[in-house]
Amino acid sequence: MPRLAAVVLSLAAPHVAAADVVKLALTGPYSGGSAPMGISTRDGSRLAVAELNAAGGLQVGDRKLKIELVERDDEAKNDRGALIAQELASMPDLAGVIGSVNTGVVLAGDKHLQDKGLTKIICPAAGSASMTQWADKPGAPGPKELSIFRFAAHDGIQAAMVVEEALRRKLSKVAVLHDSTNYGVSGRDDLLAQVKAQGGPEVVAVEKFNIGDKDMTAQLLGCKAKGAQAVLIWGIGPELAAVANGMARLGFRVPLIGGWPLSMSNFIDNAGANGDGTLMPQTFIEEPVTPRAKAFIEAYHKAYGVSRIPSPVSAAQGYDAVLLFAAAVKQAGSTDSRKIRDALEDLKEPVHGVIATWVKPYSKWSAAKVETHEAFRRDKVVMGMVKGGRVVFANEADRARLAAQQ
């Protein structure tokens, strides 16, 4: 992989005629509570595009084509997400879409992309329902072909790791807190399913909160009164920090373990010292444990003038998702989105990303097994921990394992 630090970024390249480009849409929440995820994904994707374009673009048949980006802010609003999806589905020369964060936005919009056969890689996240909506159901078989892929550690992996962590700590009683979004509700269900599958611990309370809530005292007092030895949490925004701060005020000093958004800057910054020790699954940690990770981190910091990536997971997944898409375009020898989909389902060559080297991450769609369009498996996910304003490896063995892969 060329050194990212050496790439001259032209993130605002002049418009070129559609026939001479591969047009790729980036969507996500670039404003609002989910913005650290959306912006980091977009900026990681931009880095990959800048690198590919600086190297001459993508080989498409006998031509070299530059990637041109179309960016849309869905503001984490379901109705806006639906409108954006309809707009993108109407573009005759669009090759694909990378993006989304919020489950509700995906549920509102992806049906329009699927109807058009427009290839989309959900990145960096969306809850389980974003893929299970296409699965076989009693009396309602899923689609025989699906243009939607996901590039994220799906909630089944994350929920399993969260429950395993509680059991590893020999906790017998836990509380489950979740926000009231589609993501929070599906995450709650995944956590409860994993508790059942793993035979514990006992769930003594299940509480919810709404987006925008700043005081979770009532929910936390209920959890504390019932003897919860940890809080397992699923949410997407600054409300996660309100929970950590509320726990500190109440002297409710038990582990806070939850989904990957606990690594976002708006949790770490708003929770401050109260966030230290919080645990969450991660696909990428902002430490230079490999040469690829080091080059990526340095390039991101330089390009965007930051010393810490707002959401490292999102940035790295945005970068690797573009590389997977580019590999599919090259293999297809076409900008036709359906041909790109077919290539994604059977990538012939390994793709060397910043998270991992991806070898056939997807396979032919099966509505009986949504994992066919899921890229991540358990071995690509580690446990992270907040410490001193950053996310670090919770287990030294994970750092050593990743370093040994290079």
Descriptive keywords:
single chain; 406 residues; alpha/beta; Rossmann fold; 2 domains; six-stranded mixed beta sheet; four-stranded parallel beta sheet; 13 helices; 39% helix; 18% strand; globular
Structure description:
The protein has 406 residues and is an alpha/beta fold. It folds into two domains: 4-153 and 286-375, Response regulator (Rossmann fold, 3-Layer(aba) Sandwich); 155-282 and 382-404, Response regulator (Rossmann fold), CATH 3.40.50. Helices cover 39% and strands 18% of the residues. The protein has helices spanning 35-54, 78-89, 103-116, 129-132, 155-168, 182-197, 217-225, 239-249, 265-271, 291-304, 312-332, 337-344, 396-404; strands at residues 21-28, 58-60, 63-73, 94-99, 120-122, 148-150, 173-179, 202-209, 231-234, 256-258, 279-282, 351-352, 357-358, 382-387, 390-393. It is globular.
Taking the sheet with the most strands, its summary is: 6 strands, mixed
For the record, the CATH architecture of the largest domain stands as: 3-Layer(aba) Sandwich
Q: Give the end-to-end Cα distance, rounded to a whole number of Å.
A: 12 Å
The outline comes out as globular
Instruction: Write the element-wise H/E pattern from the N-terminal end onward.
Output: EHEEHEHEHEHEHEHEHEHEHHHEEEEH
* Secondary structure: number of strands: 15
Mean pLDDT: 93
Strand order of the largest sheet: 2-3-1-4-5-6
CATH hierarchy, class of the largest domain: Alpha Beta
Number of helices: 13
Helix/strand-derived category reads: alpha/beta
CATH superfamily name of the largest domain? Response regulator
Uncertain segments are 5-18
Could you estimate the helical fraction of the residues in percent?
A: 25-40%
Quote the CATH topology of the largest domain.
Rossmann fold
